[in-house]
Write a sequence for this structure.
Protein backbone atom coordinates (compact mmCIF):
# COMPACT_ATOMS: atom_id res chain seq x y z
CA UNK A 1 0.00 0.00 0.00
CA UNK A 2 0.97 3.66 -0.06
CA UNK A 3 1.37 5.85 2.99
CA UNK A 4 2.80 9.19 4.09
CA UNK A 5 6.22 9.09 5.70
CA UNK A 6 8.43 11.77 7.18
CA UNK A 7 12.17 11.70 6.53
CA UNK A 8 13.43 15.05 7.79
CA UNK A 9 12.02 18.51 8.51
CA UNK A 10 9.88 19.61 5.53
CA UNK A 11 10.54 16.26 3.80
CA UNK A 12 7.23 14.43 3.50
CA UNK A 13 6.90 11.54 1.06
CA UNK A 14 4.15 9.21 -0.10
CA UNK A 15 5.78 5.81 -0.49
CA UNK A 16 5.05 2.12 -0.94
CA UNK A 17 5.05 0.37 2.43
CA UNK A 18 4.07 -3.16 3.52
CA UNK A 19 0.35 -3.86 3.60
CA UNK A 20 -1.01 -4.07 7.15
CA UNK A 21 -2.01 -7.54 8.34
CA UNK A 22 -3.68 -8.98 11.42
CA UNK A 23 -0.91 -9.51 13.97
CA UNK A 24 -2.97 -10.07 17.12
CA UNK A 25 -6.45 -11.61 17.42
CA UNK A 26 -7.76 -8.24 18.71
CA UNK A 27 -6.66 -6.36 15.56
CA UNK A 28 -8.59 -5.19 12.55
CA UNK A 29 -7.25 -3.95 9.24
CA UNK A 30 -9.04 -0.79 8.13
CA UNK A 31 -9.16 0.73 4.65
CA UNK A 32 -8.96 4.51 5.03
CA UNK A 33 -11.73 6.56 3.41
CA UNK A 34 -10.90 9.92 4.97
CA UNK A 35 -7.90 11.26 6.85
CA UNK A 36 -6.51 14.72 7.51
CA UNK A 37 -3.51 16.73 8.61
CA UNK A 38 -3.49 18.04 12.19
CA UNK A 39 -1.90 21.24 13.39
CA UNK A 40 0.13 19.13 15.82
CA UNK A 41 1.60 17.23 12.83
CA UNK A 42 3.31 20.48 11.89
CA UNK A 43 5.66 20.22 14.88
CA UNK A 44 7.16 17.09 13.33
CA UNK A 45 7.07 18.70 9.88
CA UNK A 46 9.04 21.69 11.17
CA UNK A 47 11.51 19.53 13.07
CA UNK A 48 10.31 20.68 16.49
CA UNK A 49 9.44 17.14 17.57
CA UNK A 50 11.71 14.23 16.72
CA UNK A 51 10.81 11.56 14.16
CA UNK A 52 12.80 8.71 12.70
CA UNK A 53 13.42 8.86 8.93
CA UNK A 54 10.65 6.95 7.22
CA UNK A 55 8.30 7.04 10.22
CA UNK A 56 4.56 7.04 9.46
CA UNK A 57 2.38 10.00 10.34
CA UNK A 58 -1.28 10.95 10.74
CA UNK A 59 -3.69 10.25 13.59
CA UNK A 60 -7.15 11.24 12.31
CA UNK A 61 -8.99 8.82 10.05
CA UNK A 62 -12.10 6.79 9.40
CA UNK A 63 -12.75 3.93 7.04
CA UNK A 64 -14.06 0.47 6.28
CA UNK A 65 -13.03 -2.69 8.16
CA UNK A 66 -11.34 -5.03 5.71
CA UNK A 67 -10.49 -7.89 8.08
CA UNK A 68 -10.99 -8.65 11.77
CA UNK A 69 -9.01 -10.83 14.17
CA UNK A 70 -10.55 -13.92 15.75
CA UNK A 71 -11.17 -12.20 19.10
CA UNK A 72 -12.79 -9.05 17.71
CA UNK A 73 -16.43 -9.10 18.83
CA UNK A 74 -17.82 -5.73 17.79
CA UNK A 75 -16.72 -5.34 14.18
CA UNK A 76 -16.77 -7.28 10.94
CA UNK A 77 -15.57 -6.73 7.40
CA UNK A 78 -17.58 -3.97 5.74
CA UNK A 79 -18.28 -1.91 8.86
CA UNK A 80 -17.76 1.85 8.63
CA UNK A 81 -15.82 3.06 11.69
CA UNK A 82 -14.03 6.10 13.09
CA UNK A 83 -10.75 5.84 14.99
CA UNK A 84 -9.88 8.16 17.89
CA UNK A 85 -6.36 9.55 17.68
CA UNK A 86 -5.05 6.96 20.16
CA UNK A 87 -5.83 3.26 20.42
CA UNK A 88 -6.86 1.81 23.79
CA UNK A 89 -7.75 -1.64 25.10
CA UNK A 90 -11.14 -0.64 26.55
CA UNK A 91 -10.68 -2.86 29.61
CA UNK A 92 -8.22 -1.12 31.94
CA UNK A 93 -9.14 1.15 34.85
CA UNK A 94 -8.31 4.29 32.89
CA UNK A 95 -10.53 3.24 29.97
CA UNK A 96 -13.34 2.49 32.43
CA UNK A 97 -12.90 6.01 33.83
CA UNK A 98 -13.05 7.58 30.38
CA UNK A 99 -9.35 8.44 30.22
CA UNK A 100 -8.35 6.24 27.30
CA UNK A 101 -5.33 8.43 26.58
CA UNK A 102 -3.69 6.96 29.72
CA UNK A 103 -4.37 3.32 28.79
CA UNK A 104 -1.17 1.34 29.59
CA UNK A 105 -1.58 -0.69 26.40
CA UNK A 106 -2.64 2.26 24.30
CA UNK A 107 -0.62 4.23 21.79
CA UNK A 108 -0.58 6.96 19.17
CA UNK A 109 -0.97 6.37 15.47
CA UNK A 110 2.27 7.05 13.64
CA UNK A 111 4.44 6.13 16.62
CA UNK A 112 7.47 3.96 15.80
CA UNK A 113 6.30 0.57 14.56
CA UNK A 114 2.66 1.57 14.01
CA UNK A 115 0.71 2.69 10.97
CA UNK A 116 -0.27 6.31 10.46
CA UNK A 117 -3.65 7.54 9.33
CA UNK A 118 -2.37 9.34 6.24
CA UNK A 119 -2.22 6.20 4.14
CA UNK A 120 -4.40 3.69 2.35
CA UNK A 121 -4.85 1.30 5.27
CA UNK A 122 -4.14 0.92 8.99
CA UNK A 123 -3.73 -2.00 11.38
CA UNK A 124 -5.84 -1.13 14.43
CA UNK A 125 -4.82 -2.77 17.73
CA UNK A 126 -7.53 -3.46 20.35
CA UNK A 127 -10.26 -2.73 17.87
CA UNK A 128 -13.13 -3.36 20.29
CA UNK A 129 -11.77 -0.80 22.74
CA UNK A 130 -10.75 1.74 20.12
CA UNK A 131 -13.12 2.00 17.17
CA UNK A 132 -16.66 3.35 17.04
CA UNK A 133 -19.11 2.07 14.45
CA UNK A 134 -20.81 4.56 12.16
CA UNK A 135 -24.00 4.15 10.10
CA UNK A 136 -23.16 2.39 6.84
CA UNK A 137 -25.15 4.89 4.79
CA UNK A 138 -22.82 7.71 5.89
CA UNK A 139 -20.19 6.33 3.50
CA UNK A 140 -22.21 7.73 0.60
CA UNK A 141 -22.62 11.23 2.07
CA UNK A 142 -19.48 13.27 1.44
CA UNK A 143 -20.33 16.17 3.76
CA UNK A 144 -21.41 13.90 6.59
CA UNK A 145 -18.35 11.71 6.19
CA UNK A 146 -16.15 14.80 6.50
CA UNK A 147 -18.04 15.95 9.59
CA UNK A 148 -17.68 12.50 11.15
CA UNK A 149 -13.93 12.60 10.58
CA UNK A 150 -13.74 15.47 13.08
CA UNK A 151 -14.79 13.01 15.79
CA UNK A 152 -11.34 11.42 15.53
CA UNK A 153 -9.72 14.46 17.15
CA UNK A 154 -10.65 18.12 16.74
CA UNK A 155 -14.32 18.03 17.71
CA UNK A 156 -13.66 15.90 20.79
CA UNK A 157 -10.64 18.02 21.66
CA UNK A 158 -12.71 21.20 21.44
CA UNK A 159 -15.32 19.54 23.66
CA UNK A 160 -12.61 18.55 26.17
CA UNK A 161 -11.45 22.17 26.28
CA UNK A 162 -14.98 23.43 26.82
CA UNK A 163 -15.48 21.00 29.69
CA UNK A 164 -12.16 22.06 31.21
CA UNK A 165 -13.22 25.69 30.89
CA UNK A 166 -16.38 24.88 32.84
CA UNK A 167 -18.72 26.05 30.08
CA UNK A 168 -22.31 26.13 31.30
CA UNK A 169 -25.60 27.44 29.98
CA UNK A 170 -25.56 31.23 29.94
CA UNK A 171 -21.82 31.59 30.56
CA UNK A 172 -19.34 33.84 28.76
CA UNK A 173 -16.49 32.01 27.03
CA UNK A 174 -13.35 33.29 25.32
CA UNK A 175 -11.44 31.12 22.85
CA UNK A 176 -7.71 31.69 22.32
CA UNK A 177 -6.66 30.21 19.00
CA UNK A 178 -8.32 30.24 15.57
CA UNK A 179 -7.10 26.87 14.33
CA UNK A 180 -9.39 23.89 13.83
CA UNK A 181 -9.34 22.97 17.53
CA UNK A 182 -10.13 26.52 18.63
CA UNK A 183 -12.99 26.69 16.14
CA UNK A 184 -14.32 23.37 17.40
CA UNK A 185 -14.01 24.84 20.89
CA UNK A 186 -16.40 27.57 19.75
CA UNK A 187 -18.75 24.89 18.41
CA UNK A 188 -18.51 22.94 21.67
CA UNK A 189 -19.14 26.02 23.82
CA UNK A 190 -22.23 26.83 21.76
CA UNK A 191 -23.45 23.25 22.10
CA UNK A 192 -23.05 23.42 25.89
CA UNK A 193 -25.15 26.57 26.06
CA UNK A 194 -22.69 29.45 26.34
CA UNK A 195 -24.51 32.75 25.88
CA UNK A 196 -21.53 34.80 24.77
CA UNK A 197 -18.50 33.42 22.91
CA UNK A 198 -15.54 35.68 22.19
CA UNK A 199 -13.21 34.31 19.52
CA UNK A 200 -9.65 35.65 19.43
CA UNK A 201 -8.23 35.53 15.92
CA UNK A 202 -6.88 37.72 13.15
CA UNK A 203 -7.67 35.72 10.02
CA UNK A 204 -11.02 36.68 8.55
CA UNK A 205 -11.63 33.32 6.86
CA UNK A 206 -11.24 31.63 10.23
CA UNK A 207 -13.19 34.14 12.29
CA UNK A 208 -16.01 33.89 9.74
CA UNK A 209 -16.19 30.18 10.58
CA UNK A 210 -16.07 31.06 14.27
CA UNK A 211 -19.11 33.31 13.83
CA UNK A 212 -20.92 30.58 11.90
CA UNK A 213 -20.11 28.17 14.76
CA UNK A 214 -21.63 30.53 17.35
CA UNK A 215 -19.08 33.21 18.23
CA UNK A 216 -20.84 36.43 19.21
CA UNK A 217 -17.71 38.61 19.21
CA UNK A 218 -14.31 38.57 17.51
CA UNK A 219 -11.13 40.11 18.93
CA UNK A 220 -8.38 40.54 16.34
CA UNK A 221 -5.79 42.05 18.67
CA UNK A 222 -3.03 40.09 20.39
CA UNK A 223 -1.20 40.38 23.70
CA UNK A 224 -2.16 43.22 26.02
CA UNK A 225 -4.42 44.76 23.37
CA UNK A 226 -6.42 41.52 23.20
CA UNK A 227 -6.65 41.39 26.98
CA UNK A 228 -7.99 44.94 27.07
CA UNK A 229 -10.52 44.19 24.34
CA UNK A 230 -11.91 41.15 26.14
CA UNK A 231 -12.08 43.08 29.40
CA UNK A 232 -14.02 45.85 27.66
CA UNK A 233 -16.46 43.35 26.17
CA UNK A 234 -17.06 41.78 29.59
CA UNK A 235 -17.50 44.90 31.68
CA UNK A 236 -13.96 44.66 32.99
CA UNK A 237 -14.42 41.21 34.51
CA UNK A 238 -13.21 38.72 31.91
CA UNK A 239 -14.73 35.44 30.73
CA UNK A 240 -16.15 32.75 32.99
CA UNK A 241 -14.38 30.15 30.88
CA UNK A 242 -11.36 30.39 28.58
CA UNK A 243 -10.43 27.79 25.97
CA UNK A 244 -6.69 27.78 25.25
CA UNK A 245 -6.06 26.02 21.93
CA UNK A 246 -2.56 27.16 20.92
CA UNK A 247 -0.01 25.96 23.48
CA UNK A 248 2.48 28.84 23.51
CA UNK A 249 3.63 30.95 26.42
CA UNK A 250 1.88 33.99 24.97
CA UNK A 251 -1.42 32.18 24.47
CA UNK A 252 -1.44 30.89 28.04
CA UNK A 253 -0.59 34.34 29.42
CA UNK A 254 -3.49 35.74 27.42
CA UNK A 255 -5.80 33.00 28.72
CA UNK A 256 -4.95 33.77 32.34
CA UNK A 257 -5.31 37.52 31.80
CA UNK A 258 -8.77 37.32 30.21
CA UNK A 259 -10.24 34.85 32.69
CA UNK A 260 -12.71 36.20 35.21
CA UNK A 261 -11.83 35.83 38.89
CA UNK A 262 -13.15 32.41 39.87
CA UNK A 263 -13.12 31.31 36.23
CA UNK A 264 -11.57 28.30 34.55
CA UNK A 265 -9.14 27.69 31.70
CA UNK A 266 -9.51 24.58 29.56
CA UNK A 267 -6.19 24.00 27.82
CA UNK A 268 -5.71 21.64 24.89
CA UNK A 269 -3.04 23.44 22.86
CA UNK A 270 -0.03 21.10 22.62
CA UNK A 271 2.62 22.89 24.74
CA UNK A 272 5.59 24.10 22.73
CA UNK A 273 8.06 26.93 22.97
CA UNK A 274 9.85 28.29 26.02
CA UNK A 275 7.52 28.14 29.00
CA UNK A 276 3.89 27.81 29.89
CA UNK A 277 3.22 31.44 30.75
CA UNK A 278 1.68 30.39 34.04
CA UNK A 279 2.05 32.53 37.12
CA UNK A 280 0.63 30.41 39.92
CA UNK A 281 0.51 33.32 42.34
CA UNK A 282 -1.80 35.22 39.97
CA UNK A 283 -3.99 32.16 39.53
CA UNK A 284 -4.01 31.58 43.28
CA UNK A 285 -4.97 35.16 44.11
CA UNK A 286 -7.75 35.19 41.51
CA UNK A 287 -9.06 31.64 42.10
CA UNK A 288 -8.51 30.63 38.48
CA UNK A 289 -8.76 26.90 37.75
CA UNK A 290 -6.73 25.12 35.06
CA UNK A 291 -7.87 21.84 33.56
CA UNK A 292 -7.23 20.08 30.27
CA UNK A 293 -4.56 18.08 28.50
CA UNK A 294 -4.71 15.34 25.90
CA UNK A 295 -8.38 14.83 25.07
CA UNK A 296 -9.80 11.32 25.62
CA UNK A 297 -11.90 11.63 22.50
CA UNK A 298 -12.93 7.95 22.61
CA UNK A 299 -14.95 8.82 25.73
CA UNK A 300 -16.73 11.68 23.96
CA UNK A 301 -17.61 10.11 20.60
CA UNK A 302 -20.80 8.35 21.81
CA UNK A 303 -22.09 11.69 23.17
CA UNK A 304 -21.13 13.79 20.16
CA UNK A 305 -21.99 11.31 17.39
CA UNK A 306 -25.80 11.74 17.46
CA UNK A 307 -25.49 15.52 17.08
CA UNK A 308 -23.13 15.13 14.12
CA UNK A 309 -25.43 12.58 12.47
CA UNK A 310 -28.46 14.83 12.94
CA UNK A 311 -26.65 17.92 11.66
CA UNK A 312 -27.13 19.77 14.95
CA UNK A 313 -23.32 20.02 15.06
CA UNK A 314 -21.41 20.33 11.79
CA UNK A 315 -17.64 20.72 12.11
CA UNK A 316 -17.00 20.06 8.40
CA UNK A 317 -16.24 23.74 7.54
CA UNK A 318 -12.87 23.46 9.34
CA UNK A 319 -11.67 21.40 6.36
CA UNK A 320 -10.92 24.01 3.72
CA UNK A 321 -8.57 22.13 1.38
CA UNK A 322 -8.93 18.61 0.00
CA UNK A 323 -6.09 16.56 -1.47
CA UNK A 324 -5.52 13.00 -2.62
CA UNK A 325 -2.78 10.93 -1.05
CA UNK A 326 -0.20 12.27 -3.53
CA UNK A 327 -1.14 15.79 -2.44
CA UNK A 328 -0.33 15.29 1.25
CA UNK A 329 3.15 16.92 1.05
CA UNK A 330 1.62 20.02 -0.56
CA UNK A 331 -1.09 19.92 2.12
CA UNK A 332 1.57 20.17 4.79
CA UNK A 333 3.09 23.17 3.02
CA UNK A 334 -0.30 24.85 2.81
CA UNK A 335 -0.97 24.44 6.52
CA UNK A 336 2.57 25.48 7.44
CA UNK A 337 2.18 28.64 5.35
CA UNK A 338 -1.31 29.19 6.81
CA UNK A 339 -2.94 29.20 3.40
CA UNK A 340 -5.07 26.27 4.59
CA UNK A 341 -6.81 25.78 7.92
CA UNK A 342 -7.09 21.99 7.91
CA UNK A 343 -6.40 19.65 5.01
CA UNK A 344 -8.75 16.75 4.25
CA UNK A 345 -7.13 13.70 2.69
CA UNK A 346 -9.02 11.31 0.39
CA UNK A 347 -6.74 8.31 -0.24
Amino acid sequence: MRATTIHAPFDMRVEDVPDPVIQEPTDVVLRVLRACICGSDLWAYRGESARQPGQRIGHEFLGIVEAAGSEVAGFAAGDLVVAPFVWSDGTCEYCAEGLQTSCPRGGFWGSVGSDGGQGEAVRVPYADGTLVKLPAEAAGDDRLLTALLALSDVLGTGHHAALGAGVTKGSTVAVVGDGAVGLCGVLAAKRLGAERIIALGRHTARTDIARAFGATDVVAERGEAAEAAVRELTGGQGAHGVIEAVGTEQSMRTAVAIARDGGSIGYVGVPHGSGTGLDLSVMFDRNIALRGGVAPVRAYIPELLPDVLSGAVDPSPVFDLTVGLDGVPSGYRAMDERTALKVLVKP
